[in-house]
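Intended use. Records such as the Folate-binding protein YgfZ entry shown here are meant for training and evaluating sequence-to-structure methods. They are not intended to support clinical decisions.
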Amino acid sequence: MVENVSVVAAPSPLLGLPGAVPGPPDSPDAAVPWHYGDPFGEQRAATDRAVIVDRSHRFVASITGAERLSWLHTISSQHIAELGDGRSAEDLDLDLNGRVQHHFVLSDLNGTVWLDTESERGPDLLSFLQKMVFWAAAEPKAEPDYAVLSLLGPRWRELTEALGVSELPGVYEAVPLPDGGFLRRMPWPTEDSFDLVLPRAQLSERWTALTAAGAEPAGLWAFEALRTAALRPRIGIDTDDRTIPQEAGWIGGPEEFGAVHLNKGCYRGQETVARVHNLGKPPRRLVLLHLDGSADARPAAGDPVSAGGRSVGRVGTVIDHFELGPIALALVKRAVGADTRLEAGPMAAAIDPDSIPTDEAPQAGRLAVDKLRGR
């Protein structure tokens, strides 16, 4: 049976904390604290100390059943059939033309696959999963009583006792917590990044215990600024309805911190992924833009990126970084070079040259075709 799940995330109880300022009312992050009065200080703390970020508006679901991994493997882009207990990965749902519909993080732990994704996209993803079960021994369902907190910073190594674990997990590993839920290590937005997926009823208690142990409160602004600087896209903001995985940098297995494994069996959208990988190049690429901080207005997600009055891409996340200043992610045409003078919405912009992918070698499939043609 397909569940009827609400799309709107309920306001987090942590919005009642001293100094908590909610996310912009017209954004998908209005239900959680955006900052606590010092957004740049919170970002700095996330890189050299330890902070805790409320991401409880994430949509959480679970999949149980003996065939949960082998079944999910056949309908998604990641190689997870033999993922292993206590392991995690990122995954995509693509449409028939290889365009990205959903991005989610999953962890297999003690006979259950836990997955989380954007709150407004979660119900559609769950509906798709439930419709695709057929005769498989797999049962996807929403888990509204679970929530996500993110932990950033190198000092989390000193706070294992407060977390209730003997040691921190490795990247994409997950370990159970004594009172329910689990701790998972992620490769982004910083080198020291962790997710707590825990019963929602424990949010305030966990927050109090961890901040008492030395973790500093940080709003989602800090998480988003570091994610943007790390060139990690957020679906629905940094992507549009034409985005394919290669454009967003999602190619690779778990060991490569990607979401699309190139050596796995058939899945919806695989033909496009394989064709681009073997024969062509993606029409656009995700880059980091440095924005003109002197401008009065800012672009918004979806605004055009233009060069000489001609549209060459679209703006994604726009945010202020504590070291880089105003920055943005953007999908731009491959032909746009780092030295191109750009406008992002109402302001001047420049591509960070370090954000441009350097792998321009010809694909194996293209070389084979050229060889057959005597080139």
